[in-house]
Write a structure and sequence with these properties.
With about 375 residues, this protein is of the alpha+beta class. It has ten helices and 14 strands. A hairpin with a 4-residue loop joins strand 3 (about 245-250) and strand 4 (about 255-260). It is globular and about 135 Å long.
């Protein structure tokens, strides 16, 4: 039979059967996919229990051997150390930008050092609290550049004796630096109740100016703070800085220290401190005195030997300056012969080697001599 004679229905029948190979491929693909999902993972070791690779109660499976858990799995959880440390989230605390901010956060007491008790433990609680408040306030004022106000507040804290020794020393250091400007500098700070500007009149004399315009300050002190090297070279119209004073001294015997103060009563402010020598065998008394006289280049008679040292004698044990004091209370009014003076034995400073008087280094006694004035300046001796 020729192709021309083929039944057309037969041709249609062959065209319908032609898709069968594609169906076979589809079935084979499905079988392969099912087999892939059912085939054991290559990460599981042969003959290994699949449960062994599962973490249990926080235990990390880190080997290929089956892991045997203890009977009490909670104990295992407690002892387990995680590979990464557990970090507790704490809200960040911003540090203060300055010491001022730190002090401001402590309205009652500034933060004490680990070895320091806040306040003087011997002072009454109310005194300690007030002293610490003044300390914090004064330091804040100092940071704000308000030196005059800070000086008064810190002086109040120091004078009350309510501060611990560390804070008291901190106040002395801060106020000593401040005094270099407010007291010993030539400028007059605004609102300073102790400083004023004075214009020298025609024919003005430095000694007369000191006598009439201050509370007994020596003219040498006026020259000192104004940078005057020759008192005879001043001129009319020249501006001077003057301090009203008066100045006072407090000697703390146990510390071998003299603190210099300025002003009266509640307005008194700290100026600076000096190291001193005291009397042997506790001969330096305690109590209140006042300056009775002051002498430059004095003659001295040794009270034990009677030996007299002339004014210009380089072996004069009292040095170049003598400040006599007299008692002002029942316990001291009958005491005599005591005073403050220089020394030619500088190694005795910080020791008890004098006959009872206060010894000072030459430059120190020169300054104290200029500011402690007779009948105006008090000298107090503390144990």
């Amino acid at each position: 039979m020729s192709r021309a004679t083929l039944n057309p229905s037969n041709r249609r029948s062959r065209r319908r059967r032609s898709p069968r190979p594609f169906g076979v491929l589809l079935i084979l693909g499905g079988i392969a996919l099912v087999g892939y999902n059912l085939w054991p993972s290559s990460e599981t070791a042969p003959n290994q229990d699949p449960q062994a690779i599962m973490p249990e109660a926080g235990v990390v499976a880190n080997n290929t051997e089956p892991t045997t858990l203890p009977e009490n799995t909670s104990a295992m959880v407690t002892e387990q150390i995680d590979p990464e440390p557990i970090r507790t989230e704490i809200a960040p605390v911003e540090p203060p930008e300055s010491t001022e901010a730190l002090i401001a956060e402590a309205p009652v007491e500034p933060k004490a050092s680990p070895t320091t008790t806040a306040g003087n433990p011997k002072a009454p609680p109310a005194v300690r609290e007030r002293s610490l408040a003044d300390f914090a306030s004064g330091m804040r004022l100092l940071k704000d550049g308000l030196g005059v106000e800070a000086r008064q507040r810190l002086s109040d804290a120091l004078r009350s004796s309510g501060l611990d020794e560390d804070r008291a020393n901190e106040v002395r250091t801060a106020l000593t630096q401040l005094s270099e400007t407010l007291v010993f500098g030539s400028g007059v700070a605004q609102r300073d109740p102790f400083a004023s500007e004075f214009i020298i009149p025609e024919g003005g004399v430095l000694a007369k100016i000191a006598q009439n315009q201050t509370n007994g300050l020596h003219w040498k002190f006026i020259a000192r703070i104004n940078g005057i090297t020759n008192p005879n070279r001043i001129r009319s119209g020249q501006r001077l800085k003057l301090l009203s004073g008066p100045f006072h001294a407090v000697v703390e015997k146990s510390a071998y220290r003299l603190d210099l103060w300025m002003g009266d009563k509640q307005d008194r402010v700290y100026v600076r401190s000096f190291n001193v020598g005291l009397g042997r065998d506790n001969r330096t008394p305690t109590g209140r005195f006042e300056v009775s006289s002051r002498v430059e280049n004095p003659q001295h008679t040794d009270p034990e030997t009677g030996k007299i040292f002339g004014k210009d004698d380089p072996m004069n044990p009292v040095g170049e300056f003598w400040i006599a004091i007299k008692g002002t209370e029942a316990a001291t009014k009958n005491l005599s012969g005591f005073g403050l003076h220089g020394t030619i034995e500088e190694n005795s400073i910080g020791r008890s080697e004098s006959l009872g008087c206060v010894r000072m280094l030459p430059d120190d006694i020169a300054l104290v001599y200029e500011v402690l004035s007779p009948s105006r300046s008090e000298v107090e001796f503390l144990p």
